[in-house]
Amino acid sequence: MKSLKSDIELLFVGAEGKMEMEKVPASGFIIKGLPIAGIKRELSIDNLSFPIKLIASLNKANSIVKEFNPHVAVGVGGYASGPLLFVAARRGVPTLIQEQNSYPGITNKLLAKKAKKICVAYENMDQFFPAEKIVFTGNPVRNDIQSIEGKREEAAQFFGLDAQRPTLLIVGGSQGARSINRAIKGGLQQLVESGIQVIWQTGKLFSQEASEALTMINSSSIKAMDFISRMDLAYAMADAVVTRAGASTVSELCIVRKPSIMVPLPTAAEDHQTKNCKALVSRNAALLVPDSEAPTRLVQEAIALINNKEKCKELSENIAPLARPKAALEIANEILQLVKIK
User: CA–CA distance from 138 to each of 102, 120, 250, 306, 331 (Å)?
Assistant: First the structure.
């Protein structure tokens, strides 16, 4: 947005206690927090407090919108989008939804009724939203992800690996993915014996356990870390990727054109990760291993994929057309058009 209109004033609104409350200020922007939280799918006493948190969030969102007086409000998912966009629309502020997944949650379906525009990342979204409001933009990805060509040697030095050997990247999100981590831990010896190098983002919760497991096998070909600070180099080094199927990850894989095995998080809202993954699988652009089968299948399938150059090429060629490298620019332009409407 700033690159298109330097004098624009931005205010972020997030959910208290969530990652955005740290990441946004660290990037130099102001963020306000709402006490909103999601409803747990299983029976939980925490759900009893949801109505109270929702009412409090609506009241605070109303104060934020009244004080900031925005020309447009944008929802990109997350708990805070619901109260904020609901209040903004009621106060006559044009709203835009950026639906990242192939299957929208209940909140975005409700918000769509009042939204002026809905930017989507998958085709056939008119089964969920009014067709006249839909703009197919894709999901924005970080600029560094879009330029990984020619970085393999730099990546090899950064991770301390051999640029000539096949390399598997394992990413379960910044918090890690337990089923993926358990499967990789159980198959470390197989990976070492296969001659494959591994870059393994474990997340903080599994970091110690991964470190202890690596001490037992004593191999320099597997690099484990709780967080990868240079994902551009991780992608540049990777010949194949094992990952969850969150919207941002899927969009990044389309941009970097990497063959992948996805293990969707089964507890994700509306099972949207499985639907994200199947949207690629149906185009022969990715492979799917169900979370429940990861312990017995994941490592073997990862080794088989990375050793099958024809399959890797096929997946790479099929995922490439799904990339939307100008998504951020297109979404920003849609937002600015709504500013003119007001």
Answer: 11, 6, 10, 28, 9
